[in-house]
Design goal:
Residues 10-19 have a biased composition (Low complexity). By secondary structure, the chain is of the alpha/beta class. It has helices at residues 5-18, 21-30, 74-93, 96-112, 114-123, 129-146, 150-154, 186-197, 212-222, 238-247, 262-272, 294-298; strands spanning 38-39, 55-59, 65-70, 156-157, 164-172, 175-179, 201-205, 231-234, 253-255, 278-280, 300-308. Strand 2 (55-59) and strand 3 (65-70) form a beta hairpin.
């Protein structure tokens, strides 16, 4: 070190010492490297990485790096179905009133993280993200209100020619595989809520383009009162996962809302026919419109009971 260097370095040290705490923190922040997050899957109430070890890069609408997302495999899909089946007995056996309470709790938790959802939706290119988050919260509350009313609307007492009571009542179908739409929050809520509020459990393939809000929603679900396994969320390739869920013998129904490829939709429908799955394939969904009861009844079976009037 030369003699001419020493005074300059000494002056630099003196200047740094003279800086206030805020200025020093700003200097450190300017060179800090961000921690890059890898979003996990959500299976059985836990957040595992894909068993394949794969992930893919998620970018903003401007092409900037946001995070890495796990790329689910067929094994992950099978694990999710197993978790959903395990949870079905307890969830379908819960009272409708209790299921409604839990959905309302999910709405509360989602609203408490409003700022994070707004940021993630804005980065994915969603316009008026704040309004979308508010609509998603309202949609959860709306479906929660239907929990103990749908049976009264869809059930009936049937007139018969004999001394019998003949009563029809709705029951959940079972495990539902859902391909979520590309609308990463309001659309996602709109396909999950009607499935679970009626007593079904589900395995959801999230939006491949914008998966981050779906895993943030999974964090909300994990910290609410929703039992583990009722909702399982996979991220990755729809083309890779959807046909395997459609062919899975322990899946009872299939929602193809998010499948835009006609050939893929036909492939899934053909696979679903192997065990006579219910298949729901709507077109032209407007997520801001009144949802009605169509999705509530799409995954319900009707049980009819005969009972002698004199007993």
């Amino acid at each position: 070190m030369s003699k001419t260097e020493r005074p300059s370095r000494a002056r630099a040290s003196a200047e740094l010492a003279a800086e206030g705490p805020g200025e020093r923190a700003q200097s450190r922040d300017s060179v800090r490297l961000a921690v890059r997050k890898t979003y996990k899957l959500y299976i059985g109430g836990a957040f595992p990485r894909s068993e394949s070890g794969r992930s893919y890069v998620v970018t903003s609408s401007k092409g900037d790096f946001l995070a890495n997302a796990s790329k689910a495999s067929r094994k992950d899909a099978r694990d999710a179905v197993t978790a959903a089946r395990k949870a079905f007995g307890g969830w379908s056996g819960a009272t409708p009133y209790n299921r409604g309470q839990i959905l309302y709790r999910v709405a509360e938790m989602l609203e408490s993280r409003r700022a994070q959802f707004v940021a993630e939706l804005s980065e994915s290119g969603t316009k008026k993200a704040g309004e979308v988050v508010d609509a998603a919260v309202d949609r959860l509350v709306w479906y929660a209100g239907w929990a103990d009313k749908i049976a009264a609307v869809t059930g009936s007492t049937n007139p018969v020619a004999g001394p019998y009571f003949n009563i029809s009542s709705p029951e959940p179908t079972g495990v539902v595989a859902v391909v979520a739409p590309d609308e990463p929050l309001l659309g996602l809520i709109s396909v999950i809520a009607p499935v679970i509020v009626t007593g079904n459990t589900c395995v959801v393939i999230a939006s491949e383009r914008a998966p981050l809000p779906s895993i943030t929603l999974a964090e909300v679900l994990a910290t609410s009162d929703l039992p583990a396994g009722v909702v399982n969320i996979l991220t990755g390739s729809v083309k890779e996962i959807a046909p395997w869920l459609a062919a899975h013998m322990d899946v009872n129904a299939l929602d193809l809302t998010g499948v835009g490829d006609e050939n893929l939709a036909i492939t899934c429908e053909e696979a679903a026919a192997e065990n006579l799955k219910r298949v729901f394939r709507p077109t032209g969904a407007d997520w801001s419109a009144d949802p009605g009861t169509r999705r509530l009844t799409a995954f319900l079976e009707t049980k009819t009971v005969w009972h002698p009037t004199g007993a």
